[in-house]
Amino acid sequence: MNGDEGCLNKTQPIGIFDSGVGGLTVVHCLWKRFPQEQVIYFGDTAHLPYGSRRPEEIIAFGTEIVSFLLQFAVKAVVAACNTSSSLSLPYLRERFPVPIIGMIGPGVRAAARVTRNKRVGVIATKATVESGAYEKAFQECAPDIRVYSQPCPLFVPLIENGCIEEKETYQVARTYLRPLREAGIDTLVFGCTHYPFLAPVIRQILGDGVRLVDPAQEAVKELADMLKLKEGKAPAGEGPRHLFFASGPVTSFYMVGSRLLGGFPYSVEHISLDGRVEDHCRRLSLGRPQVGG
């Protein structure tokens, strides 16, 4: 089941998960548009970064996290992680009876609308780039667009450690972005929800002539359309009680959350999923389902 049928319960929360704090960019966009929606957030900081993980690990992480979120009777889930979206989304949609929105499709459709010269760059984790998910999505959406993908493995650790505008970050960013500048792109897709934190750095390096596409904003627009279609928008009322969980370190939530949200007045509860994840990994390694599409 994939949760496509029927209306949603308006009072139920929305689940959001990511490998760390990058998904807070989705939370930020969601609250700007729907401040009445309750969020249950899970950051898998124990397994960060996802970009160097095996596909079966990433699928197993997603399986356990969505199972955990469903304990809160969430009405929809946003897989606010491009790596997870590129590798596990079809599996998760088939397994769970709840609408699950990924990041790749919304970002690709937005980039296809705004590019002028049909040269689009994608910066992402190593796993996302190697999955070919963006190339496949562009081929289905706009086959005339040339896609230039660039893995940026150091970006997530830098962001999680609060190194947003340090000299080292600029040096790393210049190295990663050089091939995209040489390719003449006019549009850049943030292929990881962490990367919008580096937008000022990237803007300075690429210049104003390159349009930056944040899939977090596009995914929230897709979520909004789904809530409208399924009559699931939460009613106005008292401020919702948001819950934040992490499988590992929580420091980055307060550090990066304050930078993005102007403050982070929430507690983050530690939840371990390791035992069950290992079981899933073993099963998936023996017979991993096809995850294309």
TrEMBL record:
Pathway(s) it belongs to: Cell wall biogenesis; peptidoglycan biosynthesis
Positions of substrate binding: 18-19, 50-51, 82-83, 193-194
* Catalytic reactions of this protein: L-glutamate = D-glutamate
> Which EC number(s) does the record attach to this protein?
5.1.1.3
InterPro entries linked to this entry:
Asp/Glu/hydantoin_racemase, Asp/Glu_race, Asp/Glu_racemase_AS_2, Glu_race
Keyword Isomerase present in the record's keywords: the answer is yes
Give the enzyme class.
Answer: isomerase
Q: Name one GO biological process term.
A: cell wall organization
Please provide, alphabetically and separated by semicolons, the GO molecular function terms listed in this UniProt record: glutamate racemase activity
Give the domain of life: Bacteria
Q: Which UniProt keywords apply?
A: Cell shape, Cell wall biogenesis/degradation, Isomerase, Peptidoglycan synthesis
Q: Which PROSITE patterns match?
A: ASP_GLU_RACEMASE_2 (PS00924)
The entry's active site is 81, 192
A family per Pfam = Asp_Glu_race
Task: Please give the family membership noted in the entry.
Answer: Belongs to the aspartate/glutamate racemases family.
What does the UniProt function comment say about this protein? Provides the (R)-glutamate required for cell wall biosynthesis.
HAMAP family given in the database record: Glu_racemase (MF_00258)
Q: What is this protein called?
A: Glutamate racemase
